From TrEMBL:
Sorted UniProt keywords: SH2 domain
Protein's name in the database: BLNK protein
Gene: Blnk
Transmembrane intervals: none
GO terms for cellular component: cytoplasm
PROSITE patterns cross-referenced by the UniProt entry: SH2
Organism: Rhinopomastus cyanomelas
Length: 119
């Protein structure tokens, strides 16, 4: 179990559009939630949705079968791996998360600061 179901930041029934709308309404840098990924792919079960600088970032959370761990974004060497999705969130509440905008080729970073609940 990824340790998400009892968490305030987990939006179980939320799709991408609802998540993006909720974060834009919050309009606070570092607002975030975790939702189920749109695709039915066991290797990418969740998406971390973060608001920063008037933009919404959808960051895939990958499940690594071989180690039973989770990691953010595309696979890369030396990536941080976590035993649960909750650990990813707790880690990035303390340390900044790098946000990559692939369209504009820019990098930002923010901590996860404000839990957004989807009504």
């Amino acid at each position: 179990d990824a340790g998400v179901h009892s968490k305030a930041w987990y939006a179980a029934t939320c799709d991408r559009r609802m998540a993006e709308d909720a974060l834009q309404r919050s309009n606070k840098d570092g607002s975030f939630l975790v939702r189920k990924s749109s695709g039915q792919d066991s290797r990418q079960p969740y998406t971390l949705v973060v608001f920063y600088n008037r933009r919404v970032y959808n960051i895939p959370i990958r499940y690594i079968e071989s180690t039973r761990q989770y990691a953010l974004g595309r696979e890369k060497s030396g990536e941080e791996r976590f035993d649960s999705v909750a650990e990813i969130v707790e880690n990035h509440q303390r340390t900044s998360l790098v946000l990559i905008d692939s369209q504009n080729n820019t990098k930002d970073s923010t901590k996860l600061k404000h839990v957004v609940r989807v009504s």
